[in-house]
Amino acid sequence: MKTPLLQFTSNGIYCKKAQVYLDPWKPVDHAIISHGHADHSRYGHKKYITHHRNVPIILHRLGEINVTGKEWGETFIINNVTFSLHPAGHIIGSSQIRVEHKGEVWVFTGDYKTENDGISTPYEPIKCDTFITECTFGLPAFKWTPQAEVLENINNWWAENKAEGKTSILFGYSLGKAQRLLKYLNTDIGEIYTHGAIENMTEVLRPLVDFPKTTLITKETKKEQLLGNIVLAPPSAHGSTWIRKMVPYVTASASGWMTFRGARRRRAIDKGFVLSDHCDWTGLLQSIEATGAEKVICTHGYADIFSKYLREQGYDARTEATQYGEEETETALASKSTAAV
Questions:
Q1: Does 283 lie in the same domain as 267?
Q2: pLDDT digits (tens, 9 = 90+) for 186-212
Q3: pTM of the predicted model, to two decimals?
Q4: Per the domain annotation, does 335 fall within a domain?
Q5: Domain of 219: which CATH number?
Q6: 320 neighbors 226 (Cβ within 8 angstroms)
Q7: pLDDT tens-digit map of 101-124
Q8: CB count in 10 Å sphere of residue 271
Q9: CA 59, 16, 132: angle at the middle one, nearest 5?
Q10: Is there a single domain that holds both residue 215 and residue 253?
Q11: Residue 340 within a domain
Q12: Domain tally for the chain?
């Protein structure tokens, strides 16, 4: 039986012909990294290849590593296998990884979204024979409202809280979601304060994107300074002593999971805004169709349900287990921060 061009192993997704792994979850010699989130970009590999916009991100998170940056569409050949990186639209510097050998083409998406968020290089469909797709929101219930409408609602929420003399605390992952929110917050309403994990990552990305001014919350910050203003914080800050000192405040979370009211209740969040850095159901289906792929491998998320649906539509679809899932190790990131009220 012919060995697949890419295999799912205990270390990660492996290209045996090139002896290279894609987003491996255990230490390996050679790794091609799709993006900077902690579940896809891990410490311990001997050599890293990624998009050049992702280089400062993973250096910030992983420290001194041996990393090479590539441009979109730039081909590089390893043991007669041709690789290239293409925009995934998930976060800044996020890539799909195209792998070709003897005319056979596979595409590994990492994580991706089809809506242009205005700060990430927009997603581009890549023709292939086999498409490896995430299924984080692979249910028909997930259907995203256009970003502009969601962001307008967030700014209106902030203005209402200011009128009531309360601090607005908005939760989002420190890499990706926080910067997407920050880019479109209306500074005519007030000032933007940040948790250390978000401030530090945003500073890494400022050379790439024109973000509004932010103020880091420190031990010297008085809660009176925060009243009427907005605070961007990672989810791990919720319920901490850091946040309890900001009373009176109102909380909100920006996430695809806010589709379900139960998720907001379980997290004890006052307001939920449905804003995701992943595809919704329609985005997943349209992306797969655009690739022209006959074979689809479904990974993390609602993989079983989604692959079953694809088979019903005539695709050769199956699932594979990975160690992807939570985008951030937010607790670890927060512990590196010196932020405190």
A1: no
A2: 999 999 999 999 999 999 999 999 999
A3: 0.94
A4: no
A5: 3.40.50.10890
A6: no
A7: 999 999 999 999 999 999 999 999
A8: 17
A9: 70
A10: yes
A11: no
A12: 2
pLDDT per position as a tens digit, 1-41:
788 999 999 999 999 999 999 999 999 999 999 999 999 99
Task: Say if residue 156 is in the same domain as residue 256.
Answer: yes
Does one domain contain both 214 and 311?
A: no
Phi, psi of 78 (to 5 degrees): -125, 115
- How many other β-carbons are positioned within 10 Å of the β-carbon of residue 212? 13
Do 83 and 154 have their domain in common?
A: no
Distance CA 213, CA 130 (A): 44
In a domain, 71, yes or no: yes
169 and 129 within one domain: no
Q: Cβ(310)–Cβ(286) under 8 Å?
A: no
Helix (H) or strand (E) holding 141, with range, is none
Q: Are 257 and 263 in contact (CB under 8 A)?
A: yes
CATH number at residue 96: 3.60.15.10
Considering only 140-149, 171-180, 255-264, 272-281, which range has the smallest mean pLDDT?
A: 255-264
* pLDDT at res. 326: 63
What range defines the domain where residue 63 resides?
A: 7-141+278-328
Instruction: Compute the radius of gyration of the chain from its Cα atoms.
Output: 20
Q: What is the pLDDT of residues 245-289, one digit of tens each?
A: 899 999 999 999 999 887 777 778 999 999 999 999 999 999 999
Residues 6+ apart with CB under 8 A from 104: 5, 129
For tokens 């089809």, name the residue.
114
CA atoms within 13 A on the CB side of 11: 16
In a domain? residue 103: yes
Question: Considering the chain, what is the average pLDDT of its residues?
Answer: 94
CA torsion sign, 297 to 38 to 9 to 125?
Answer: positive
How do beta strands 104-108 and 130-135 pair? Answer: parallel
Is 153 found in the same domain as 112?
no
* pLDDT of amino acid 317: 98
d(CA 189, CA 116) in angstroms, rounded, equals: 25
Q: 10 Å Cβ neighbour count for 184? A: 17
One domain, residues 136 and 219: no
H-helix segments, 92-208: 147-163, 177-184, 196-205
Quick one: pLDDT band at residue 327, thresholds 50, 70, 90? low
